Amino acid sequence: MHHGLRIVCWGLCLAVVGAAPTRADPATRVKDMASLQGATSTPLIGYGLVVGLNKTGDRRQTIFSTQTLTNMLEKFGLSVPPGEVKVENVAAVLVTAELPTYARPGARLDITASSVGDARSLQGGTLLATPLRGPNGQIHALAQGPLSIGGFGGGGGDNSVAVNHLTVGRVPSGAMVQLGTGATLPTSETVSLVLRDPDFVSASRLAQAVNGEFGPDTAQVVDPGTVTIRVPQNYRTSIADLMARLEVLPVESDTPARVVINERSGTVVVGGSVRLGAAAVAHGNLSVTIRTRYEVSQPAAAFSNRGDTVVVPQTDVDVREQQARLVALEEGTTLDAVVRALNALGATPRDIIAIMQALKAAGALRAEIIIL
């Protein structure tokens, strides 16, 4: 029998001077950075049943799933006492979706079904017809279809394996809109575009692109997130044609430099605008591995009534320290250079997380760190 304990440590040495230059991102279409003001989606939610599971559904203690099943069977003319129902291939779920502003009856929506009971897996299940309601309580869509889990599970008890999350599934285009929001395009002399990521530079460049297409003083920046547009005379009765012309305009958007870190999964995403000041990074790993083996000592004579069986632990301690290497990063170092430098250090994703945080604390990292 082996029990292992592994302790990993790392060290950093930093020196910082200077400032980093800025640059704009490549051209982006207007439709990818802004939308018409008022064009917001409506959240939908519903309660339903997933059937066809292979004994991985809700257990007996989940009462509401059996109540829902018996209520549904009564509508088909079958009267079954809820206390007599014992099935494991049914799971109660909450179904969610987003209804776009201009969705009309007949449009299809993607839906997500999440278990609300103690089902172990929704793998192989089919969602029964479920009405989806908006915040006002009205039914806007009807959802149904086989679930896609994006993983799998097998075995049972202590001998089981699961890949990805098995109690949440999706049905692409699984809901059909029954009732739209009734929203219509504005008919006023001005319309407003709302930026998805408010930014003074991006808003100014958006206004410049619109003025270059329709003439000066057509667009005006109100705030970092809003640009108002004076509707040209020939588009007063056709806002849809105006939006079609606006949405394809290229804009030199400017996004903040960000580093996104997910410490749970060890994922690091570094934006292309990230720059570093001059810095020197030294990275080294200290690994301490402790292994314990339990050896059993038996009495000398076979089937002897004398002597005791003794468990003797054998412990091995191994200490290794990798040679630290110093990597110099020049002023204005780009993302590619940072990646090459960290790869040269042999840094793992979790090492990179520590390095990024240390660079930020030292003032060398010219970016916002977002930890998920």
Provide a short characterization of the protein structure:
The protein has 372 residues and is an alpha+beta fold.
Provide structural commentary:
This protein is 17% helix and 40% strand. It has 372 residues and is an alpha+beta fold. The protein has three domains: 1-21 and 255-372, no CATH class; 28-39 and 186-251, Aspartate Aminotransferase, domain 1; 42-177, no CATH class. The strands form eight sheets. A six-stranded antiparallel barrel has the order 4-5-6-11-8-7. A four-stranded antiparallel beta sheet has the order 3-12-14-13. The two termini are 38 Å apart. Mean pLDDT is 77; it is low at 1-24.
Task: Supply database-style keywords.
six-stranded antiparallel beta barrel; 372 residues; flat; alpha+beta
Number of strands: 24
Please state the CA-atom Rg, rounded to the nearest Å: 31 Å
Total of DSSP H or I helical runs spanning 4+ residues: 6
Major sheet size, sense and barrel closure: 6 strands, antiparallel, barrel
> How far apart are the first and last residues' alpha carbons, in Å?
38 Å
Query: Beta-sheet strand percentage?
Result: 35-45%
Q: Secondary-structure element sequence?
A: EEHEEHEEEEEEEEHEEHEEEEEEEEHHEE
Q: What spatial order of strands do you see in the largest sheet?
A: 4-5-6-11-8-7
Calculate the mean pLDDT score and round it: 77
Proportion of helical residues: 10-25%
Global structural class: alpha+beta
- Give the number of domains: 3
Unreliable runs? 1-24
Shape: flat
